[in-house]
Design a protein that fits this description.
This protein is mainly alpha-helical. The protein has a domain at about 5-85. It is about 60% helix and about 0% strand. The chain has helices at about 5-30, 45-80, 95-100, 110-115. It binds zinc ion. Zinc ion binds next to helix 4.
């Protein structure tokens, strides 16, 4: 796999910044959804309470994913600053621009990713 050019690094830096902003916004917006469900029987029926609890579980799961991705994005940005961005953390090979363009926060090259699944 080819090393990244300066131009490609610039582009991926922008992508990471956008992704970081998007994740922070998502985490902010989903905060309300994970507040404890109001179990007041007067206010909501049994069915909608179950719905509310399910929604809350889903919101928690997606927040968990967002937080994990946020951490990966921050690691990638740090690596970028240190000139170590774009290398597989498992085998050390260059990950490749096409793959990073789709998943700029990925720490693994395609073969290591495939092997880990
Ligand atoms: Zn690898």
């Amino acid at each position: 796999m080819d090393e990244l050019t300066e131009l490609q690094l610039e582009e991926l830096r922008d992508d990471l910044h956008l992704l970081l902003g998007k994740l922070k916004q998502q985490l902010q917006e989903s905060l309300d959804l994970t507040q404890p469900v109001d179990l007041d029987q007067q206010a909501v029926g049994r069915v909608s309470r179950v719905d509310a609890i399910q929604q809350q579980e889903m919101a928690k799961a997606s927040r968990q994913q967002d937080r994990q991705q946020l951490a990966r994005v921050q690691l990638a940005m740090k690596a970028l600053e240190q000139g170590e961005f774009g290398y597989c953390e498992n085998c050390g090979e260059s990950i490749g621009f096409a793959r990073l363009k789709v998943r700029p926060d990925t720490p693994l090259c395609i073969s290591c990713q495939t092997a880990s699944e």
